[in-house]
Design brief:
The structure is a single chain. With about 270 residues, the protein is an alpha/beta fold. It is built from 9 helices and 9 strands. The strands form 2 sheets. The protein has a 6-stranded mixed beta sheet with strand order 1-2-3-4-6-7. Strands 5-9-8 form a 3-stranded antiparallel beta sheet, covered by helices on one side. Strand 2 (about 45-50) and strand 3 form a beta hairpin. Mean pLDDT is about 85; it is low at about 1-10 and about 25-35.
Length: about 270
């Protein structure tokens, strides 16, 4: 078992702890921890969300980039499914959020909650997701540009500076399709795709090349012209770094206003 004083704050911390053969308990988690399933295919593995603030409750989930992923998640006993469109940052699929979410809702929404993800950054995205039948939204990129987010040097600034077309789906960092901020590293491999290795070899290669520091402590110095900055297409709407609490309040307030306006329009 880990020492009582040990604290896990990221999925990387969790991975290192479990690989070392120690027993991990909810006492080691700080606040909220998201653990992604290690799969990018039709496997029905579920990831975990552990929330220390509610007694270490555990929710099993699955990122669904296709309808059949959601069906498999339901069959495996996941508590909810995240319908993630191709606009999302990080490892992603090919189907857009607008098309994917209602199809996933039709397939499994009557049995488990469906969470919409991919390109969502404000209250308009929340309102639209609810209209598509989703029960909630999953926002990633927008929350990186907050003071509370853990991010290496230049990551938050890269998001603020990004335009709507400054991300690219590339296999250059991990060997899997991953939406990231376009830079010198992605441009090189876009011109030399034959040099890209499969996962996990490419992930090892990018780490050894000192361009992959995902999960490292805030302020870690990196080469900002080549560093691994996963980001969704919503990055173009990120214009400033604001506190997470204000971001949540703004998203909810804007969604409520839109839904009220739509209700009056009827």
């Amino acid at each position: 078992m880990l020492a009582q004083s040990a604290r896990l704050t990221t999925s990387s911390d969790f991975a290192r702890a479990t690989k070392s053969g120690v027993r991990v308990t909810t006492e080691h988690f700080v606040g909220y921890l998201y653990i992604s399933p290690v799969t990018n295919n039709d496997s029905a593995k579920c990831g975990l969300i552990i929330n220390k603030s509610v007694g270490g409750s555990v929710a099993r989930h699955r990122l669904a980039r296709k309808v059949r992923h959601a069906v498999a998640a339901l069959a495996s006993g996941c508590d909810f499914v995240v319908a993630q469109g191709t606009e999302a940052g990080g490892h992603t699929g090919l189907v857009a959020t607008m098309a994917l979410v209602p199809q996933v809702v039709d397939a499994v929404g009557s049995q488990i909650p469906v969470v919409a993800a991919g390109g969502i950054f404000d209250g308009r995205g929340l309102a639209a997701s609810l209209a598509l039948g989703a029960d909630a939204i999953w926002v990633g990129t927008r929350f990186i540009a907050t003071p509370e987010a853990r991010a290496v040097n230049g990551y938050k600034e890269a998001l603020v500076a990004s335009r709507e077309d400054d991300t690219v789906i590339s296999r250059s960092y991990t060997g899997k399709p991953c939406r990231v901020v376009r830079n010198e590293w992605t441009n090189h491999y876009e011109s030399h795709p034959d040099e890209i290795q499969t996962f996990p070899l490419q992930a090892i290669a990018s780490t050894q090349a000192n361009v992959n520091h995902l999960g490292y402590p805030s302020g870690t110095q990196v080469d900002t012209s080549r560093e691994f900055y996963p980001a969704g297409q919503g990055a173009g709407a990120v214009h400033e770094i604001i506190p997470a609490a204000k971001l949540v309040a703004d998203i909810v307030a804007q969604a409520e206003q839109i839904l009220k306006q739509l209700g009056k329009a009827k």
